[in-house]
Design a protein that fits this description.
membrane; VWF_A; seven-stranded mixed beta sheet; elongated; 35 strands
C-alpha cells in the first residue's frame, strides 16, 4: 500500500488527544448500592469475563477511536500499489542517465526508482516482463520473460550509462516489443514531457514515474585547458541553479591524482555564474577539476579536460585545385582560405595546405604540399600506398599518376618507390604530394579526403590529446604508429583494444583515459552531455489508451477511498446504536 499525501499523518494527533483524555478523565468510585434494581445488571457483570466486561462498558469509545483512525487514513490518500496491468505484458523503461544520481529525500533517484521497479514486478508475478534501458541508444535487457526473479535481478544489477537518455526512442522501442498487443509501459525517469512520447499506439498505456522534488544544484558548465607561453591555464565556468547563495571550493589534479595549481574558494549568488581562471599550471596532458559544495546533484561537480584536444584550424591555399578544397570540406575540418601574400601571417600552430614550395620549406611541421616548382617528369605509373597510419582508413588501391615532380632528398617515401615517390614525409611531420591534383585520378576517389582527414587528425593529436568524448561515444581517430590503440584508465587499468581501422568507443563513466600503443600515448576525456548538467523534476501521470478508450490517473497507487468511506459510515451507525442502547461510556 502507498499513500498519496503522507504529510497528513500529523492528524494522528487528534485520536491521540482523545486517547489521553480517556485515560485522564474523572474516575468514579464504585460503591455497593443495596437496591434490587441493580441485581440483574451486577449479575451480568459477575458472570462475564473481565475483558468482555471492559468492552461492554467502553464499546462507544473504541468505535469512536476506530472511526477517527480511519479518518486519518483517509486524509493520507491510501492506495494499493500495482500496475493495473490487465494485458499480461509489463514493459519497464529505465532512464540510466547521469541525472538519475540527483538526490531525492536523501537517496539517489536511481535507487528509489529501482525499489519501485522491484515492487512493481513483485505485484505482477505471472506477467511477462520486458526491461528497456533508455540510454543514448536504447537497448533491451530482458524481453518477454515470465521469471519475476530474473527481472528483479536485472533491475538490481542495472548501472548508469551517464549518456543523455532518448526516451522517445525507448518508448517507441517498447511499442515495437509489444508487437501490436496490449501492454503497460512504466517509464522511470526524472521528468518526461509530451515531446518524449512517440506517436500513439492503440493498446499501450504509458505510466510515468518521475522525480517529485527538485534538488539544489551547482554545476561546472564549462572547463578547458589553454596553452600559454609560460605553461598552461585552465578556465572553468560555474553556475548556481539553487535558490540560495552557495560557497564552493575548486581544486585541480593531474592524471595521476596529484594536486595542481591553487585552490579557489568563493561564494556564488543564486542564479549567477562565475568564471574562474587557474594560471601558471604545469604542462600536463590532462586535468581533473573537483568542486566541493552543498548541493543535491554530485555528478556535475567533477569534470575532466585534456590539453590540446580537438582539431586545429586548417588554412588552405586559395590557389589550390578546387577538388582539394572540396576534399578538405568533406573531412569536416574548420577550413579557411588564404592568399599566398598572407602566408607569413599564418599561425604557427595551424595546419597549412599549400601549393607553394617556399611556404612548405619555411614552415616546420603541420604542412601539406601539393606539387612543387619545376617541371614534372611525364611517366604514367600506378602507385600503391604503403602500410602507414596515413592510409589506415583509405582502401589499398593503386593510384594512377601521369607525372611526378622530383622528390625531396631528405624526406621519406610513404607512397611509391624512394626514387620516384608520390608522397613523402619529413622528420618534423610535413607531407609532400609530388603531383598536381590534375595529374592524377586520386582526388576523384573516396581515399583522397580520408587521407587528408588522417593527416589533419594526426597533426591535432600531436598536442597529446585525443579529444573530448561523450559517454559511450564512438569516434574514429588516426591509428598509432603501430596501427591500433589500447584503452586504459588514468590509473593504468586495461579496458579495451581497437584495431587500426576501428573507431574508438569511449567508456560510460566520465573521467580521464589513456590510449596507448607502445611508447605512444594520447589522453582523452569523457564528460557529461550538456543536457545532464541540469536536474529536473516532473509529474507522475498516465497517458495512452486501450482499444476501449482513454485512460488517466496516478502512476503509483490505485485509490481505495470508497471502501474506507463505507467502513466509516458503518462505524458511525454502530456508535448511534450503542449510544441509544447503553448511553455514553463510563
Amino acid at each position: 500500500m502507498g499513500f498519496g499525501s503522507i504529510g497528513m499523518i500529523w492528524t494522528l494527533a487528534v485520536p491521540a488527544i482523545v486517547l489521553l483524555y480517556y485515560f485522564f478523565r474523572k474516575k468514579y468510585e464504585e460503591r455497593t448500592v443495596p437496591s434490587i434494581l441493580f441485581w440483574e445488571q451486577s449479575r451480568k457483570h459477575t458472570e462475564s469475563s473481565p475483558l468482555i466486561s471492559h468492552l461492554n462498558r467502553n464499546a462507544l469509545f473504541y468505535l469512536q477511536m476506530a472511526a477517527l483512525l480511519l479518518f486519518v487514513l483517509l486524509l493520507m490518500k491510501p492506495g494499493i500499489a500495482g500496475s493495473g496491468n490487465n494485458s499480461g505484458h509489463l514493459i519497464i523503461v529505465a532512464d540510466t542517465s547521469a541525472t538519475m544520481l540527483a538526490d531525492e529525500d536523501g537517496e539517489p533517484l536511481i535507487e528509489r526508482q529501482k525499489t519501485k521497479m522491484e515492487s512493481l514486478i513483485r505485484d505482477n508475478e505471472g506477467a511477462r516482463f520486458t526491461i528497456i534501458r533508455a540510454s543514448g541508444s536504447p537497448d533491451v535487457l530482458l524481453q518477454g520473460s515470465e521469471q519475476a526473479d530474473q527481472a528483479i535481478g536485472i533491475v538490481r544489477s542495472m548501472g548508469l550509462t551517464y549518456a543523455h537518455q532518448d526516451l522517445n526512442a525507448a518508448m517507441a522501442l517498447a511499442g515495437t516489443v509489444a508487437g501490436g498487443e496490449k501492454a503497460d509501459v512504466h517509464v522511470f525517469t526524472d521528468a518526461a514531457g509530451p515531446e518524449d512520447f512517440p506517436p500513439a499506439m492503440p493498446g499501450l498505456v504509458y505510466r510515468i514515474h518521475a522525480a517529485s522534488t527538485l534538488p539544489e544544484n551547482v554545476s561546472i558548465e564549462q572547463f578547458g585547458i589553454a596553452r600559454m607561453e609560460d605553461g598552461q591555464s585552465a578556465i572553468a565556468v560555474v553556475t548556481n541553479d539553487s535558490p540560495t547563495d552557495k560557497k564552493i571550493v575548486l581544486s585541480l589534479e593531474d592524471g595521476q591524482g596529484n594536486p595542481v595549481g591553487k585552490v579557489h574558494e568563493l561564494t556564488i549568488a543564486e542564479g549567477e555564474s562565475e568564471r574562474i581562471v587557474f594560471d601558471g599550471l604545469p604542462a600536463v596532458p590532462g586535468l581533473k577539476l573537483t568542486m566541493e559544495t552543498d548541493d543535491g546533484y554530485p555528478a556535475d561537480n567533477i569534470v575532466h579536460a585534456v590539453s590540446g584536444g580537438g582539431e586545429l584550424q586548417v588554412y588552405a591555399d586559395a590557389g589550390l585545385h578546387e577538388l582539394v578544397h572540396k576534399a578538405l570540406l568533406a573531412t569536416g575540418a574548420d577550413v579557411t582560405a588564404y592568399g599566398r601574400d598572407e602566408a607569413e601571417q599564418l599561425p604557427e600552430e595551424a595546419i597549412v595546405v599549400t601549393g607553394s614550395e617556399k611556404t612548405f620549406q619555411e614552415r616546420r611541421g603541420r604542412t601539406i604540399l601539393f606539387g612543387r616548382e619545376g617541371q614534372p617528369e611525364e611517366n604514367p605509373v600506378f602507385i600503391t600506398p604503403s602500410e602507414v597510419p596515413l592510409f589506415g582508413f583509405a582502401p589499398g588501391e593503386d593510384i594512377y599518376v601521369s607525372g611526378l615532380y622530383p622528390p625531396f632528398p631528405d624526406m621519406e617515401a610513404v607512397a611509391g618507390p624512394q626514387s620516384s615517390p608520390l608522397i613523402q614525409r619529413a622528420s618534423d611531420g610535413r607531407i609532400a604530394v609530388l603531383a598536381d591534383p590534375s595529374m592524377t585520378d586520386w582526388p576523384l576517389r573516396p581515399s583522397f579526403p580520408l587521407f587528408l582527414w588522417s593527416a589533419i587528425d594526426g597533426y591535432s593529436r600531436e598536442q597529446a590529446g585525443a579529444g573530448t568524448f561523450l559517454p559511450g561515444e564512438r569516434r574514429s581517430v588516426t591509428p598509432s604508429l603501430e596501427g591500433g590503440w589500447q584503452l586504459y584508465t588514468s590509473d593504468g587499468e586495461y579496458l579495451a583494444e581497437f584495431g587500426p581501422a576501428e573507431a574508438v568507443a569511449a567508456p560510460d563513466q566520465p573521467g580521464l583515459y589513456v590510449l596507448r600503443a607502445g611508447k605512444e600515448e594520447r589522453y582523452l576525456a569523457v564528460i557529461l552531455p550538456e543536457e545532464e548538467r541540469t536536474v529536473k523534476a516532473g509529474l507522475s501521470y498516465t497517458a495512452g489508451e486501450r482499444e476501449s478508450g482513454g485512460t488517466s490517473g496516478s502512476a503509483d497507487n490505485q485509490p481505495i477511498v470508497v471502501p474506507l468511506v463505507l467502513l466509516i459510515l458503518l462505524l458511525i451507525l454502530a456508535e448511534w446504536e450503542v449510544q441509544r442502547r447503553h448511553g455514553l461510556s463510563y
